[in-house]
Design goal:
The protein folds into 2 domains: 94 residues; 179 residues, no CATH class. The chain has 288 residues and is mostly helical. The protein starts with 11 loop residues before the first helix and ends in a 7-residue tail after the last helix. The longest helix is centred in the first third of the chain and has 48 residues. The relative contact order is 0.10. Helix 2 runs antiparallel to helix 3, helix 3 crosses helix 6 and helix 7 crosses helix 11. The chain has a 3-stranded antiparallel sheet.
Length: 288
């Protein structure tokens, strides 16, 4: 199969340089962190200057007066930008840590041979396609299947973090603290972890499996495939009881070929194994 016009011949995760990506993410996190600090310094300086002027009865004229008025009027904008800078810095920093963990996984398996990759494929019910394998020779002419290692490492990372999040969620949901408030808050945290961390990570791991199956043609992230509808426990419960509505993942309309438009929470929670979820997201996929 020929590569799509204007696209790399293989999945993006197979051709990117992880170390460069991590460096770029850290640089962006640092830049937004600096902007946040500069904004706080500017806001503090303007506030102190305004307080001093009005408290001491200093009269400004001409350019100084106009500059002070402009600075004071700019403070609401500074306060508006500060959370944005902080959120972006945190997001880039979190992404960098995620990629660092993927890189660590990749280093763990970098010495796998072709047989090790084949064993992994068998365990995940993946069938190497001759045409797809030929495409991987662009990356590793000697052992084409080893070119899949970056995707396998990413899968292992998200599978493990999904399992960890789900285990922690169950521990919090099974909390039996004597204090009712503590018990309720802890269980709410557990459900939030289940819906907003464990399931999305397991779904993304399923997407990565599909990319491993078809590294030549499949290049979607979870967000590009559909939309998650995460809910609090009480929302999920009452929507189901009163409206018989249990939507968790909605496939984007232009990608619904051979896929159900909606996947429910119950369908997903019944088996959080990525290879099972892969069959929900990609129902026409062949298995062994």
């Amino acid at each position: 199969m020929a590569p799509p016009i204007g696209r790399d011949p293989v999945n993006r995760y197979l051709v990117e340089n992880l170390e460069e990506k991590i460096s770029d993410l850290n640089a962006k996190a640092f830049s937004y962190n600096v902007l946040e600090k500069i904004s706080w310094v500017a806001f503090t300086a303007i506030t102190v200057a305004a307080y001093t002027i009005f408290h001491c009865g200093i009269v400004l004229t001409g350019i100084a007066s106009a500059a002070m008025v402009t600075a004071i009027l700019s403070t609401p904008f500074l306060l508006g930008f500060i959370p944005t800078f902080s959120n972006r810095s945190n997001a880039y920093s979190k992404s960098a840590q995620e990629e660092l963990s993927v890189l660590a996984k990749l280093k763990e398996i970098e010495n796998w041979n072709t047989e090790s990759v084949q064993k992994f494929l068998e365990e995940q019910d993946l069938i190497p396609d001759e045409g797809q394998t030929q495409a991987l020779t662009l990356l590793n002419p000697q052992e084409p299947l080893k070119a899949l290692l970056p995707l396998i490492a990413r899968f292992q990372h998200f599978q493990k973090t999904a399992e960890d999040a789900e285990n922690e969620s169950r521990m919090l949901l099974n909390n039996h603290a004597a204090n009712r408030t503590i018990r309720l808050v802890t269980r709410q945290d557990g459900w939030k972890l289940h819906e907003r961390e464990a399931i999305p990570r397991a779904l993304f791991a399923a997407c990565i499996l599909q990319a491993i199956q078809n590294p030549y043609i499949y290049d979607f992230t979870l967000e590009e495939l559909g939309t998650i509808t995460a809910k609090r426990f009480d929302e999920r419960f009452w929507d189901y009881k009163l409206l018989n509505e249990d939507t968790y993942f909605t496939i984007h309309e232009d990608l619904r070929r051979n896929r159900p438009p909606i996947i429910t929470h119950d369908e997903i929670a019944a088996n959080l194994e990525p290879k099972a979820l892969r069959m929900l997201l990609f129902p026409k996929t062949k298995i062994r």
